[in-house]
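#struct-pred

JT: dropping the chains for the assembly here, can someone run the whole complex?
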Amino acid sequence: MNASIIGQMAVSGALMGLVYALIAYGFQLTYATSKSINFGQGELVMVSAFFSLTLTNLGFSYWFMVPGGLLFGALLGLVVERAGVRLALEQKSEGWILLTIIIGLFFFSAAENIWGRDDRPFPTPISADPIHFLGVDVTRLELAVAVGVLGIMGLIELFKRRTLLGKAFEAVSADRDAAELMGISATRTVMLSYGLSGAVAALAGILVSPITTVGPTMASAIILKAFSVAVVAGLDSGFGVVLIGMFLGALESLSSYYLGSGWREAPGLILLILALAVRPTGVFGKAIIRKV
Amino acid sequence: MLRQTLYGSLILAALGLQAGDTVKIALTGPFSGGSAPMGTSARDGSKLAIGEINAAGGIQVGAKKMKIEIIERDDEAKNERGALIAQELAAMSDLTGVIGTVNTGVCMAGDKHLQEKGITKIICPAAGSASMTQWANKPDKPGVKDNSIFRFAAHDGIQAAMVVEEAINRKFTKVAVVFDSTNYGVSGRDDMLDQIKKQGNKLEVVAQEKFNIGDKDMTAQLLRAKSAGAQAILIWGIGPELAAVSNGMAKINLKVPLIGGWTLSMSNYIDNAGKNGNGTLMPQTFIEEPITPKAKAFIDGYHKAFKVGRIPSPVAAAQGYDAVYIMAAAVKQAGSTDTKKVKEALEDLKEPVPGVIATWNRPYTKWDPADVTTHEAFRREQTVMGMVKDGRVVFGNDADRERLRKSALSATPAKAKAKKK
Amino acid sequence: MKRILLLRGAELLVFAFLATIPLLVVNPYALGLLTLLAIYGILLIGLDVTVGYLGQVNLAHVAFLGLGAYAAGLAVTKFGLGMGPALLAAMAVGLVLGGLLALPALRLEGPQFALATLSFAALCTTALNELEALTGGAQGLSLSRPPILGHVLTPPLFYWLCMALLALVWMLMRNLLASQWGRAFEALRDSPIATDAMGVGTYQHKVAAFALGSALGGLAGGLYAFNFQYLQPQSFTYDLMIILLLGVVLGGRKSLWGAFVGASVIVLLPNLLSNRLLFQVFSGLGFAGALAAGLRGLVKKTTRPFQALAPGIAMGLLVVGGFFVENTEDWRKAIFAIMLFSVVVGLPEGLMGFLSTFLAKLFRVPHAPLPEPSDIETILPPRAADGSPLLVLEDLKRHFGGVKAVDGLSMIIKSGTIHGLIGPNGSGKSTVVNVISGLYTPTSGRILLRGVPLSSGSLYRVSKSGVARTFQNLQLFGELTTLENVMVALRGVYRSPLPLVLLGLARLEERKAQADALCLLERIGLRDQALIKAKDLTYGAQRFLEVARALARKPDLLILDEPAAGLAHPDVVQLIEIIKRVHKRGISILLIEHHMDVVSELCDIVTVLDGGKVIAEGSPDEVKRHPKVVEAYLGQPTQAENPQPETPRGAEPLPA
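RK: done, full complex below.
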């Protein structure tokens, strides 16, 4: 087949895959500290995007809107942690799965009623015109997504390694009980991780909205894929999500070209079930030794 | 269990208490979820009309004037909800009629309950062909003898014919057919392929591409259309995904016209496609241009009542509005709120009904299972080609605008029923 | 028996009432709702098997509903089958595909399992949508109810059919879940490792449970198809799945009544919300209830502040919101979310769980009396202790990457002995136990039980061949009672085939199991605590229960992994007594222990490990004086005449 088409498909798929990777990274953050993830993360992406859109419509500039949106996302992350996760963690139950789904449902319905059910365009100063690059058309918007995704992941990793708070984060991830004995508050670290995860979700919303438009259902498809990326890469795989995200995005795009668009997601799903069956902790995850 | 029966009896009691001197009309449709813009526009259009009628004292039923009472039900575009709502409505003894439904699947799952009880329903604003053909004769099964289901929408057959005609008129020979994976999209594809055959196979379909609800990246489908050399894209789907197609075309630099169903006029297409949407063509029953006084009054009324600057789906709103007036005319003619009598009146409306889309002259006739158009109000004449231009839908060609203006102004409306397809 | 009678009576009453409804009410809408209630009831009972009993978030159930519906639909339209065969086909499709999905998916847990099932559901929707030639794709599939014995099913008849099937499913599931199967399902939720180690195959039971739940999903799907008579793939998506999941949780997990209540809420909720007055009444009642319960919890300090207050606040939001919101219909999902939130936080056991505790308190129904304990002679007949080699380890190695946890270990455990295995922390004791019991596969070396190689790497198979173990970190089935913990592990009692169990004809066997288990509990002094949940026992009692549960395996070799860890002195004394009694029955014991006094008192022979290798072996007194042992414990060479060092970490002082 035509090499330039394959290239085009792979590149645009992989760039979209970076968004999956970013949201997947948000899952990793909370999983590291609390072994829990927010099943309503998609609603965080969506509500933050709506909020950012409102900021823009109120006349704030793009560069003010972005931090505003991130802050709002972080706030929502904290709400989820307080209302949906903390109690379950204290009781050492898996109640968080249901509670986060329920909170997501609430956010969804609230957004539907506050902002309307319609999809809306999301203004951005970055142009959507394609640029030609090594025989492949890429829009600046897509490149901005790539830069934003890798940028924030890099920043958070730096934060974890260079600051005291970040080191506390790493300590709790490595061994919660030991960290508590050293005087690090696990609860506060979990809060921090949910806040960061919320901010990451908000950034994903802001980055992807100009491409997908903003609407209550904007994240429902993305979030499932992000979840797949996180689990297939391994919930403790760090930058593994970037590789898996780009791979899954490209695979999807190519299979929709070769198998027909109805089957677009099928190879990814089959691969996912198989990958999990072979390596339950993920491709880049650490194997767990069962201890009793 | 006790609690559950308690609910049940309370609900039944609540339903039973609603007796009174009103004409009960149910408005249904998806008021939440992806098809909500169509559903809510139609509902609000209907509410506007009902508000006008009630403000004027109500409908003259026999000796007294009766106001219209609205029963509103959200089917969420889900078949099960639709079926349950239909069962609920079918169980109401004093219901005059139902107006609504956007999704064909909801009609397929629910309308049989209404049809069994003989409850009059006007399907509005959309629904694919199957919603009516399920009652008609089929090769293996005769259709129903008597049918209380009517439709008030430019059915997909007409629309597909216009889309194909437009492509042929523009001298295209190779087209790509693109559609969404829902009932609506797939039956639209079938209608278009059927029309291409009917109109002499002048178009070669070089690609058939499908997309899912929620898809934002259409690159694969469009690249295939491009590499197959499509000169136009014939499309069937709803708003947000259609916009993704337009934007995807701009991205891969595919500069061919997009022609498709009326949903291309939905605000969520126009807004999200932005400048990439310019030039897109679609059949329309109503265009949000105040070309007639009635249209102006309707548009202004809608904007004011629902505090919007533009109707989310003008076509749906206008159809919802006119459907109420047609139902009201039938109630008046029947002189009764009995749904069966209203059905008979609908099949034989003596007086023309002035609406915002057209003046409706005998829109329906007695049901014939061999011919679904007996219960279809729209003909080719009420439908025009619209075009997206700078964020609004305008007439695709000026001749249509003039024709409509004239027909609206002239006292004798066009003899719609004279020409049958 | 009073309790059973009450329960059966309530069931009978409800179903009798439901059966008479079509005779009393002619409203077809109400009948339609109740038909749907029956269908969802079956569906949720199926879902409860995985969500409640297995404790896994199963997101594929909706796919089995869809597959079942299409299987029934196609059976009727394409193959002209009748309704009965079509329903069977629907069930079979659920059973087979459920089993197939379970094979890979059930190796996973938590989020991974959720994702695998979610992917499967998405795949099914895609397949149903894309296989247009077969399913009609998005255009949908229309079908009609085929007549049964020449009768066309009118709505009341179809309703009776659905209710009858619900009652049947209810009865069968009740019998199954009250049997060893149900216990096994719950056990493997609490501790898959211990379930395997007790000879109840975790994997087999998981797959069976999943397939069973899926088959019920398929059956519900078949009824769904005949109810709506029109199918579309997009009916069976994530949205519905979430509603189903929440229905189970709302109603109450691990409860047939819970599934029934959950189904009622799912079916009736939309109607509740479309009537404003009803909505306000119910939100007001909910608010009052949540507030009262919350305050009570706060005052009595039985719940955490968040747990006590959050439901009240949420319901308050609902009441206040009710005054401001124009159209409650628009906010339906948010309202549903708030109500669920309150239930999940305030009543973790669900509505039914709460209600049943409440009713039990109200009526003070006593538990059915337990049978007299069996005779120990029949359960653990004394066996010959001839001193022949029972378990032989030959050059056993287990490496983790570069760490050589066990490095060339050879030892012989003779029949009828208590063989001690000691060593400082990190010497490889636990790894040895884990390798013998099958949790780890040895890197190299052989393990022979009575001269026959012991299967490696499978707790389940090792357990089957007569080796039982306890766990240093307790692995009890916390949600099961003390009695049930032992009953799960009982060997050679459960012989009835599945059909008999389903029909409730395995009661005798169940009584026998209770009697046997009670006998074992009596030996460890827990007979009077037989009906307490294991998680509520004292720490010492939990340790003893581990031993009793392992004994239920009627083992030849009993491995006790640090049974005295963390025990107070009186408990240690009792433990020694228990072990001695076990030993008297002729059971050989491998004892891993830190407490030197325990080892000295019990063991005939002691093997000392350090760095994964044997450094000494002999009688307790011999090894205590062995220079290498002293060195290993103290980390420095000491004179043999002066073996009274300070206490090594994690070990009792070596007695002089």
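JT: nice. DSSP finds 27 helices and twelve strands in chain C. The radius of gyration of chain C is 29 Å.
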